[in-house]
Write a structure and sequence with these properties.
The complex is a heterodimer of chains A (343) and B (381).
Chain A lengths: L4 H17 L8 H8 L2 E5 L8 E2 L5 E2 L1 H14 L5 E5 L5 H6 L5 E7 L2 H6 L2 E3 L4 E3 L1 E6 L13 E6 L3 H12 L4 E6 L2 H9 L5 E5 H9 L7 E3 L7 E8 L3 H19 L7 H4 L5 H7 L5 H4 L6 H8 L3 H8 L29
Parallel strand pairs in A: 1-4, 1-5, 9-10, 9-11
Antiparallel strand pairs in A: 2-3, 5-13, 6-13, 7-13, 8-11, 8-12
Helix pairs in contact in A: 3-9, 3-13, 9-13
Chain B lengths: L24 H9 L4 H27 L13 H4 L7 H13 L7 H19 L6 H21 L16 H27 L4 H15 L3 H15 L10 H25 L2 H9 L4 H16 L1 H14 L11 H9 L9 H31 L6
Helix pairs in contact in B: 4-7, 4-14, 5-6, 7-8, 7-10, 7-13, 7-14, 8-10, 9-10, 10-12, 10-13, 11-12, 13-15, 14-15
Classes of the chains: A alpha/beta (343), B mainly alpha (381).
């Protein structure tokens, strides 16, 4: 997930060109197109632990992949009616602008320039990521602020390297950067004891830790030193489709908040809780408002699960990654994930 | 005076002595080839030392310490199985079907197998020198096989084959497909372009020269990025050319330009007398080329053609950059799977890819050497 500055610049350049060329086209027709095609075309990662990887059968699985499946469940009542185009970080936004994909869920950081200048809209944040540190347990360090004088392994020419410099300077700590060209090399160097600490985006830390020769000897420190809000994005100018993508995310959050799970969603249809009734479509006509049927959220939960279930299954305790909810806990649990009410 | 048998003349021939050990035999060979001079001796010792340093760890990693069976990452972890772990072949075994077929739907994978079989038949027919009905073979390989494969792989509802979108294609299937498309299209196109470049018609010559020089002046990777990143921006909204087709066209045109130059080399190497002889027999341009010139020209450039094919075969990995899941990309996508996260999994994946490419390319080069020997028996220098 470490973004190369160069590729960002290229992406932005290509994106601006795309935005210039693709202005005005395709207003309000994505849903109709998707229904006519019979599947949602989703831009996905080319392979990122926990977020989008092919399994042994060649089916894509992961946290980002689930979001696409949830949109397919809301539109078609079938989470399999989705096709994935694996996109590199260079061509992801172009693919969205040119209409090649209907939806991009590819751990892309939402930023102002991307949201405003590229002709795309971020519909929300499905994962709050940020740069963190991993150290050996035997170092006896429990906070990044204690890392004074440490050598830190990082990848060359990335925003990670810049954030690192900022963090240490802000806190008046001495440090030594040991930079490598590729992420594999970087982690290998840390694993063989070349440096005291390893830094990259926190979801990446957990993925890399699994590949260490002794994963249990390493801990991820609690500090997050940069903001990387990862979210799905759609083309600008189609408010209806943006609403669908946005509200699928909120529906999964609201389902978790109200205790609606894949297992109990059928009983929950009989619930007296007005919030649950509105969410599952037994009261009100909220689904029709966004061009779907009223049981849209019921189908999302029934076929894919709520936010917490998807999280735990792909990146949390149900997966080898064992990422803690942290910032991605619900607001009721001290996190940032907050589902806007359905009413 | 009685004639005595004089004993100083030997009656039977003496047994031939073995040649001195220092002239023939293994010791002599070693002396002559490995230690003939001081620089050679030093080089030999250096090479032996390098082999000693490199080979045992490679064998240890790939075979002795390798893990062959297992269902997840625990099988390949030193801290779990308490022994040094080399290559994690269990990972490759678990993902082999993905590496072969990509995401091609499982019930339809027999179609890919049939495609592999058709391809094997076509290649064998073309490669086996004494195969019967070569003309028919060429027709099969350059016309029937591409059409049949297209119908087979993309599907055709009318004959009961469910359509399978190219988004699901991947792995070895995709690698072989891109290479074979490149080969099938580049050879005929390349020959036409080479003939065009040597043509006496100015327009044809100019068009061929421009095409060849423009394509050869651009790296393949820019062609691919242009095709998959830029092209969609220039097409009107809603019009989209298939994501696989674009690189396929790019690769074919690209290799055709290179092939044209290789074939042109052969055409120029055919002595002028052959052309003149053909013309004096009253053969027209087409017959002269078909019967007299091209057979000789192509034979001369067999090493060049095979070299281009080997280059093309390896260049197909570049399609991974534009988001197609060829073998290398499929391995890269799988190696990050947390289920198989272990220190040596990535290396194993890459070792598997290297082995696959090496076997294919080495096979091609051995074949070209064999063909060269057979066809050039009369011209060996």
């Amino acid at each position: 997930m470490t973004r190369q500055i160069a590729s960002m610049a290229l992406g932005l350049g290509v994106g601006l060109l795309g935005a210039a060329l693709a202005t005005g086209a395709s207003a309000q027709q994505t849903l109709a197109n998707v229904k006519q095609k019979g599947f949602v075309q989703c831009g996905s990662n080319t392979g990122l632990a926990g977020f989008g990887v092919p399994d042994a059968k060649g089916e894509w699985t992961g946290f980002d992949v689930d979001y696409c499946r949830a949109v397919a469940a809301a539109v078609f009542n079938d989470p399999k009616k989705v096709r994935f185009i694996p996109l590199s970080s260079k061509d992801r936004f172009t693919a969205l602008q040119s209409g090649e994909v209907d939806l991009l869920v590819r751990n892309s950081t939402a930023t102002m320039s991307r949201d405003t200048a590229l002709g795309i809209t971020f519909t929300g944040v499905n994962y709050y990521d940020g740069q963190g540190f991993m150290v050996r347990k035997k170092l006896g360090v429990s906070s990044a602020k204690e890392l004074s004088g440490a050598s830190v392994c990082t990848q060359q020419g990335t925003t990670t390297e810049l954030n690192l410099a900022d963090f240490f300077r802000r806190n008046n700590l001495k440090y030594e950067v040991v930079a490598f060209a590729s992420s594999d090399e970087t982690f290998k160097a840390y694993d063989t004891g070349r440096c005291d600490a390893f830094t990259t985006d926190s979801s990446g830390l957990y993925a890399e830790r699994l590949r260490a020769s002794a994963p249990d000897d390493h801990i991820v420190l609690p500090e997050i030193i940069s903001k990387e809000p990862l979210g799905p994005s759609v083309r600008k100018g189609d408010a209806q489709w943006a609403d669908i993508v946005k509200w699928v995310g909120y529906a999964m959050l609201n389902a978790e908040e109200n205790g609606v799970t894949q297992a109990n969603v059928d009983q929950m249809l009989k619930s007296d809780n007005p919030e649950v009734k509105r969410l599952l479509g037994t009261e009100g006509k909220f689904g029709e408002g966004i061009g779907l049927t009223n049981d849209w959220a019921y189908r999302v939960v029934k076929l894919v699960g709520n936010y917490g279930e998807s999280f735990e299954r792909n990146v949390g305790q149900g997966s080898p990654l064992k990422i803690k909810r942290g910032l991605n806990a619900l607001w009721t649990q001290g996190g940032l994930q907050y589902g806007i009410p359905v009413r | 005076m009685a004639v005595h048998t004089l004993s100083y003349v030997q009656t039977a021939q003496a047994d031939t002595l073995p040649p001195p050990l220092l002239v023939r035999g293994p010791i002599a060979w070693v002396r002559q080839n490995l230690f003939s001079s001081i620089p050679n001796t030093i080089l030999t010792l250096v090479v032996v030392y390098l082999l000693y340093v490199v080979i045992p760890p490679v064998i240890r990693f790939l075979i002795t310490d390798a893990v062959w069976t297992g269902i997840d990452r625990n099988a390949c972890r030193e801290d779990v199985i308490h022994r040094p772990v080399g290559a994690c072949w269990a990972f490759v075994a678990d993902r082999l079907s993905y590496f072969t077929y990509g995401s091609y739907p499982i019930p339809e994978r027999w179609r890919v197998d049939v495609f592999f079989a058709l391809m094997a038949v076509g290649i064998a027919w073309m490669l086996w020198l004494k195969a019967p009905a070569k003309g028919l073979g060429a027709l099969y390989f350059f016309v029937v096989f591409p059409i049949a494969s297209f119908i087979l792989l993309t599907g055709w509802s009318a004959v009961g084959l469910t359509p399978v979108p190219t988004a699901f294609w991947g792995g070895i299937m995709l690698t072989l497909l891109v290479s074979i498309v490149g080969i099938v299209f580049s050879l005929p196109f390349g020959i036409l372009l080479a003939l065009g470049r040597r043509s006496k018609l100015p327009l044809v010559r100019l068009a061929s020269v421009i095409f060849i020089e423009v394509v050869r002046g651009v790296p393949l990777i820019t062609v691919l990025i242009m095709a998959n990143t830029m092209l969609p921006l220039f097409l009107p909204q809603g019009v989209s050319v298939d994501r696989l087709l674009r690189p396929l066209v790019g690769v074919s045109l690209f290799s055709a330009a290179y092939m044209a130059e290789v074939v042109r080399g052969g055409l120029q190497a055919v002595p002028k007398g052959q052309y003149e002889g053909a013309m004096s027999l009253g053969l027209g341009y087409g017959r002269m080329m078909y019967f007299i010139v091209l057979p000789q020209a192509l034979r001369i450039v067999i090493p060049g053609i095979v070299n281009t094919f080997i280059g093309l075969f390896k260049d197909t990995t570049l399609v991974s950059i534009v988001g197609l899941l060829d073998l290398v990309r499929a391995i890269e996508a799988s190696r990050v799977d947390p289920i198989w996260a272990a220190p040596t999994v990535s290396y194993t994946g890459y070792a598997f890819a290297a082995l696959f490419y090496w076997i294919c390319c080495f096979g091609m080069s051995r074949y070209s050497i064999m063909v060269e020997r057979k066809l050039a028996a009369g011209q060996r220098r």
